[in-house]
Amino acid sequence: MAEILLHLTSVSSQLHTLNNTSDERYDSEIRDLVAYIKQFNKNLDSQDLLDNLSPSQHTLSYLFILNLHIETLQNKTKNIVPDEIKPGNDLWAKAVYFLRSFDPIQVRYAGHEWRQLIELIGQAAEAVSKPFLAVQVIREALLRLDSSGVLTSVHITFLRLSLLSRSYSHALPILEKQIFRFPTSSGQAYSKHIDRPLCSEFTLGDTFISDASGFSAKLTYRDHTRYFLYGAMIYMALKNWNKALHWLSIVISSPVNDSVSKIMVEAYKKWVLASLLGHGKLVAPPKIISSHVLKVYQTLSKPYASLADAFERRDFQRLRAEIDVGQSVWRADNNEGLVSQLFRAYNTFLVLKLGRTFSALTTTDVAQRMFTPLASSANVEEFVASLVMSESLGATLLHLHGHGSATMLRFSAPTKFVFNRENFMRKRLIEEGRALGFITNDVDQCNSELKLGNENLQLLSRNQRWPDTSGNGGGDIVQADGGLDIDEDIMGDAT
Amino acid sequence: MDLPPLSDEQLALVVASAQSPANLYSTLSDYETEACLLSTKDGKQAELLSLYYSTFFFSHLLTDQIREARLSTKRMPQNLLQSDPSLQNCLNLLRAVWQRKYEQVYTILRELPWPEPLKPIVQSYDAHFQEKTLKELSRAYEAIRPAAAATYLGLDPASAQEGDPATMQKFIACGWTWDEKTGLLHPKPIIEDSQNDAQLYNELSEVMALVGNRRT
């Protein structure tokens, strides 16, 4: 046992840092270790080994032995989720500890085992109806791995569990990381030119998360749309309508072959509701959606179209009738919660619209124009005051002297409006700036991978030009040098 | 970092030692996983859970995360939520805060029976809610009747309407002016700390620098 332990601890992230081992050598050591563990006898005392290994130092050994231990238990109990792995038990604690402290470099060599453990943690938490426990752990594991914009099946599992456990804001650190790649296909031509070992700190997620690495199960078209639909649902639960609309737009504008998928139709229905709740009107769908797809959406979501029409025409009686008639539809589509928010949104947008026409109104006037159940002056004042105090409405209230209980609603002075708008624009700029920074880094990385960086281009240019200039006969070296200089300057200008 | 196990004493220590409501919220969030593992069937653990979730609930309110407070009530054990008087009070308070029923908020905070260990945080929230409402009122109203202002702030509306000097003094202390002729109070907007504004400017500069770098 001591000999095995010695072998298992031979690869350690601490030793790698201390000894400053080259990436190539570390890579070879890790691969040897993986080969050694894979030929293990399954009957060895894995519990003892686990107690003597550190998840952060001996990540690979710990992960393989832990999975071996779990597999033995699964075979013994004939249960995929044995009691020992359920929350509160010893194996659960070990798995959680591992997922919170693993070495993200070593784990690149065991993507399949890493995912297997995460999926099991998810199943175990669901088995005891406490998905929240898995959400925390999976989030930390995903952030620790840093998938660099690559979508994996673990992302989808994570969002599903976040929705199940209603831990929406816990999902934000993952949702806010831009996802724009699928796991690399091993057949991609450019990947052959990347000769960095997996353990190099410059090897990013787009390289080590490939379709063969095991970090993700095979992704389908459905998985892709599911990820964005789940994300949109989380943003809707957090009432971040703009983000929700953006995520839904990705689903509804996904490429289609012959017919649209059910998920896309579901997303379109939610798109209609999120539009009304966030903007008070049906937002124009992305232009990228072809007209025949849009027609299919509209045909399959007629009750939603009627609802939107009543909302946009400010016809409260019809809106109420549409909502009542469609109860079974909203329930079947799991959109009851969103539909129930329409009444408040309706009143809010009605008051906002009044602000575009009038500079001031009494609350009695507002009540007369609302035609809704709120329409008593006192209720209207309470409602309008809540909008003003929560800063949803840029206005001020003024109790009037000598007019009983009259209250004047004065819509905001233009200066305040401009200030709010400036603030909003500034926030938008910063958000876009962050996205731009992210894309810039990625472009730089692509340039480097494809050898399209400035230095490479200059070198290439120099190499290409050299034969030409030497071909002039070589008699006028000064002239040739001068020509090269000019060329370099031109390249400098262009970059 | 490993947290000390959750217990009544540890909870009291966390509440007492928290430097700010945000700090309290952050520490209690870290305990949510451990709380999730406790059983509501065990009487002692159920008591601890009731105290933990109630304190956690108030830490949301103290950091103005009303929506998150609502979601936390969906995540806590539903049988405990339905049967525990303290959590039921939290639920009623949440409803009143959500619907901006000011009178109800103060009644729930001041008149409902809260467990002894929870009383300091309940009082903190009373003060926080009053202060927050005062800022909102100052911004929202150009002129307000004293009775209405008193209702918003959990003071006695009748004495405010009669112009009770002690009540009026509280408004005047906030920089409001009292026009005896019209019987109206004129709130003075309370200017918020501009720290966030400065941060926004810094971030904006970073964006501009990024754009500038790419042009060269």
UniProtKB/TrEMBL annotation, chain A:
Residue ranges of domain COP9 signalosome complex subunit 3 N-terminal helical repeats in the record: 37-193, 218-291
Matches recorded under InterPro entries: COP9_N (IPR055089), CSN3 (IPR050756)
Pfam families tied to this protein: COP9_hel_rpt
Gene Ontology CC: one annotated term: COP9 signalosome
Domain of life: Eukaryota
Keyword presence, Cytoplasm: yes
Keywords noted in UniProt: Cytoplasm
A Gene Ontology BP annotation from the UniProt entry: ubiquitin-dependent protein catabolic process
Record keyword Cytoplasm present: yes
Protein name: COP9 signalosome complex subunit 3
Species of origin: Aspergillus sclerotiicarbonarius (strain CBS 121057 / IBT 28362)
Automatic annotation (TrEMBL), chain B:
Residue stretches in coiled coil: none
Primary location group: cytoplasm
Family annotation (InterPro entries): COP9_CSN8, CSN8_PSD8_EIF3K
Keywords, alphabetical: Cytoplasm, Nucleus, Signalosome
Any one GO biological process: COP9 signalosome assembly
Pfam families referenced in this protein's UniProt entry, alphabetically: CSN8_PSD8_EIF3K
Protein's cellular compartments: Cytoplasm; Nucleus
GO CC terms in record: COP9 signalosome; cytoplasm
Domain CSN8/PSMD8/EIF3K, chain residue ranges per copy: 48-190
PANTHER family hit by this protein: COP9 SIGNALOSOME COMPLEX SUBUNIT 8 (PTHR13339)
Official protein name in the record: CSN8/PSMD8/EIF3K domain-containing protein
